[in-house]
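Quick log. Single chain, no ligands specified.
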Amino acid sequence: MAGSPSQEPPPDKRSYSIQVVGAKRVSGDWYHWLLRTSWTVLVSFIAGAFLFTNALFAVAYMVTGGVAHSRAGSFADAFYFSVQTMGTVGYGAMYPESQAANVVMVAQSVVSLIFTALATGLVFSKFARPLGRVAFSRRAVISLMDGVPTLMVRVGNERGNTIVEATVHVTMSRTVRTAEGQTFYRLVDLPLARERSPAVARSWTIMHAIDERSPIRGATPETFASEEVELIVSLFGTDDTSYQPVHARHEYEHMNILWGARYADVLSETPDGNLVLDVRRFHDVVKTEPTAAFPYPKSTSPS
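-> predicted structure:
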C-alpha cells in the first residue's frame, strides 16, 4: 500500500449564478416546485391555503348572514363554521338557515372537494417520488491502476439495500475555442472500464483509463484549470426494495479532481477470514508517488 491514509480536505467551492433572460414561463410550475420543495414548505402551503380559503368564505357568511347560533358580525363564528363545513365536521351547533347561506355552503363544499383532491394528490405524489440515497466521493482522483493513469470516482448506496442493474455515465465538460474563434462548451463522454453493475451497495469505484484512446490523454492540472474542466457523473438503476427507478448525479469541477491520489480501502479482512466494510473511509484518499509513467507534479497530491 503506497503512502498512508489521509483525511481529505473539504472540496473547494466556486460560487456563481446563471441569470436566465427571456425564458418563457410554463404554466403549472407551482406543482413541480411543490414536489421539489421540503415537507415543511409543502405542509405550510397546504395549511395556509386551507386557512385563507376558509377566511374568504367566513367573510361571505358574514355578508350574507343566515348562520344559526352565530353572533351577528362575528368573524370568529363565521370562520369556525367555515372550517366545520370545509372539513365536513358538522357539529350541528351552527348551520345555514337562509337561502343565501345555503348557496355559500354549497359553493364551499364544491371548493372543499377540489381542494382535498389537490392536496391529497400533492402529498401522495411527494411520497411516491423515487428519491435515491446515492453517495459520491467528495473528490475525483487520478492515479495509476495496473500501470495506467486512471480517473476514478467512488459511488455508493447510503441505504442498506442495493441498487440493481445500475448504469453509470461520466461526461467531461470543457471550454474550448473553435476555429472561428468562438467559445464553445464541449461535452465528451469518457469510456469506462465498466459501465454496468448488477448490484451497487456501499461502494463502487468507477474508472476511466487515460490511455491512447482517452479524450484527456496528456492533460495536466493546469490544462484542466485553463479549460475549466468539469466532470458530470450520472447513475441510473432500480431500488431492489421499492422497485422504483433511482437517478443520481454529481459534478466535479477541476479543483475537486486530485492528481496523484487513490481512494483508501474500505474493505478489509479480519484474522478469522471475515470481511469488514468501513464506510467511514468512503471519502478518504491515499497519496501515491509519481513515476516515470505518470510524472504528475507532487504539489497536486493530497497532503
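The CA atoms of residues 266 and 280 lie 8 Å apart.
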